[in-house]
Every structure is written in structure tokens, then in C-alpha cells.
Inverse folding.
């Protein structure tokens, strides 16, 4: 049994359904709205429609992807060729499987597609909370290895970038160079690279601009590589030209929060306790209040459940890979975030990212 068949059987065990539908079709939905679920359950990277039933699982792929689909999924999954019109093929497959009900993840199908399926199929269509997300929380050894590989390449690229940064470069130039370095190392960006200088680093999801970087200010870089579908998410904040005592003090405080939070990522620890400990830490400094989110799990998506939030009583478990990224954000001045990717093991946390947490001067 492949890992993908094991995951489909686990889904069938955890959720009661006659049939389960996963759709990843650019022509019917926004691009890649459910690429992660399709890949997680099949190992297939193209477009298609997946049916999972207690009796069998079937993948529909059109002529562009049919041969690749057959080659990638092995013998534990039936692959049928879609003849141009996926909606008609979905109806045919529902009738062949004798389904009277079809479940789907509510936030991974558009209302437009749901409405078209409702008009097309004379069966019950049942939306549900994402059951696949629960299966994805704990990573197996292969998944962890892929995340580690993405982290390693990310850090290789960041080390190279640091040597090239100069005062006067723009945020866009730095972000573009980092993206090129990832491509030169055989991977792509896991998400849109964030480069924020000076006051822009207050914005946690700043889009790189034509603003040049200047001496005596922070430069925040938040990025990650995607390797074999799995990704890294790392942030480091640098000093441009020189670090002032104020910059060093802010950075030291943010670094202390990251190190404290990382140490608390242990099996059996309620997530809310991690968040509260970080809040208590910041409350004793001049840089509170603490941000709403202190981290999130990663894997096939950059933001996976669970998030490190104040009200989540879920206990951390071995196999989870989460970011630890408490930050300090001062409006009009800038922000500091030191973000690591951390694997929770039976014996405690193991940081997958090893790039120095010191305040490094660039430019």
C-alpha cells in the first residue's frame, strides 16, 4: 500500500461519506484552489477530479495529463480519461459509481462550481469542514525530509543574498534577486517574497516596492522555497549599514521571544499556553502588545492548521512542523521578526532552520 492509498483510507475511516470529491481545475475554479488536497491524496501534480468511495478511488484527467496521471499514481488508483467536458464526465462517474450523495470540502470548491454540480447531479451534495487538513497536521518522515530540503535550499540562497545586498538597492530588486537565486537552485518561491525596509517592515505582509534601502534601518526578509511540493517559511531581519543601540535592543527582544516560543513547542503542550507565555514575555517589555498569531504549521501550504493562537486548546503533537514567529512592530519606525521552522519530536522541538538569529549588518 502506498502512502497515498493509506491517506485515502484514513480519510474514509475518519469521515463517513458515500463519496468524496476533490477538484483541481483551472477552467472551473481559481487556480490551485485544491491542488494540495489532490496531491496529498494521490501524489499527482496535474489537474483533475478525484472521487473517493469505500469501494474504490477514481481520478479523472484529460488528455493533457492522462499519461502523467497513470505514471504517477501507480496501481492503487483507477485513472479515467476525461473527454474534454469535466462536468459531463463527473456526472458519468457519479452514475457509474451509483452514488446518491457526494461530500466535498466547503472552502475548497467555489459556489459557482457547487451550483453547477447541483443543477447537473440528482444527488445530495454535502459540504463539510476540511477533513483532509486534520490528516495533514502530522507529517511523516518523507514529508519532513522534503520540508528540510526546502529549508536548506532557502538558507543557501539567503546566505548568498546577504553578500550581494547594497545600500540603495530597492525592495523589489532584493526580492527579485532572492527569487532568481531560488530558481538557480532548482526550486521556486513558496509564496510571494516579502522584502520590507525601514517603516515598511511594520506591515507584516508588505509587498516589495521601489523604495531603496538606507543605512541605519531594518531590512526584513520573509520568504521560502518550495521543494517537491513542500515548502519553507523563514524570516530574518537585518540592519542596513550599521545597527544602532535601539535597533539592537528591539532585535534582542524579538530574538528572545522566538527562542522562548521554540522551547515551548513540546508534545502535549496546549497551543494557547505557548501563546500566553509569549504574551507574558512581551508584557514585561516596552514592545507589547503581542501579535494575534505567533506561528502556524507548514507543509503543502504556507499556512496550515493549527495556528498558534490565544484560544486554541489543541495539544501539540510529534510530527507537526510549525513556524515560530513572534514579532515587534512599531508604526512609523519598523518591525522585527525572526521566524524559524520547527519540527515537534517526541523529545521536544528541533529547529529545521539554522540561519543565525543575530542582527547581521548588510549593505
Amino acid at each position: 500500500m502506498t502512502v497515498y492509498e493509506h491517506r485515502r483510507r484514513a480519510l474514509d475511516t475518519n469521515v463517513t461519506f458515500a463519496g468524496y470529491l476533490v477538484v483541481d481545475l483551472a477552467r472551473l475554479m481559481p487556480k490551485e484552489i485544491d491542488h494540495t488536497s489532490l496531491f496529498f491524496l494521490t501524489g499527482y501534480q496535474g489537474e483533475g477530479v478525484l472521487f473517493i468511495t469505500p469501494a474504490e478511488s477514481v481520478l479523472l484527467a484529460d488528455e493533457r495529463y492522462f499519461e502523467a496521471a497513470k505514471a504517477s499514481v501507480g496501481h492503487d488508483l483507477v485513472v479515467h480519461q476525461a473527454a474534454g467536458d469535466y462536468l459531463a464526465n463527473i456526472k458519468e462517474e457519479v452514475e457509474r459509481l451509483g452514488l446518491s450523495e457526494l461530500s466535498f470540502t466547503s472552502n475548497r470548491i467555489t459556489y459557482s462550481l457547487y451550483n453547477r454540480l447541483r443543477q447537473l447531479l440528482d444527488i445530495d451534495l454535502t459540504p463539510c469542514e476540511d477533513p483532509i487538513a486534520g490528516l495533514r497536521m502530522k507529517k511523516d518522515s518523507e514529508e519532513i525530509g522534503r520540508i528540510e530540503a526546502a529549508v536548506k535550499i532557502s538558507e543557501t540562497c539567503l546566505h548568498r543574498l546577504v553578500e550581494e545586498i547594497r545600500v540603495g538597492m530597492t525592495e523589489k530588486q532584493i526580492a527579485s534577486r532572492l527569487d532568481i537565486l531560488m530558481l538557480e537552485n532548482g526550486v521556486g518561491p513558496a509564496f510571494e517574497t516579502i522584502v520590507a525596509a525601514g517603516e515598511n517592515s511594520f506591515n507584516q505582509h508588505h509587498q516589495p516596492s521601489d523604495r531603496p534601502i538606507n543605512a541605519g534601518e531594518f531590512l526584513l526578509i520573509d520568504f521560502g522555497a518550495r521543494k517537491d511540493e513542500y515548502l519553507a517559511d523563514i524570516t530574518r531581519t537585518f540592519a542596513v549599514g550599521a545597527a544602532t543601540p535601539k535597533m539592537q535592543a528591539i532585535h534582542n527582544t524579538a530574538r528572545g521571544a522566538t527562542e522562548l516560543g521554540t522551547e515551548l513547542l513540546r508534545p502535549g503542550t496546549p497551543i494557547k499556553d505557548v501563546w500566553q507565555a509569549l504574551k507574558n514575555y512581551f508584557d514585561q517589555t516596552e514592545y507589547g502588545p503581542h501579535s494575534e498569531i505567533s506561528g502556524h504549521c507548514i507543509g503543502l501550504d504556507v499556512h496550515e492548521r493549527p495556528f498558534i493562537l490565544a484560544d486554541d486548546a489543541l495539544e501539540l503533537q510529534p510530527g507537526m512542523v510549525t513556524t515560530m514567529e513572534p514579532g515587534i512592530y512599531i508604526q512609523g519606525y519598523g518591525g522585527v521578526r525572526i521566524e524559524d521552522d520547527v519540527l515537534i519530536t517526541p523529545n521536544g522541538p528541533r529547529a529545521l532552520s539554522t540561519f543565525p538569529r543575530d542582527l547581521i549588518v548588510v549593505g
User: Anything to note?
Assistant: The CA atoms of residues 39 and 45 lie 6 Å apart. The longest strand covers residues 234-240. The chain is about 35% helix and 25% strand. The chain has a mean pLDDT of 94.
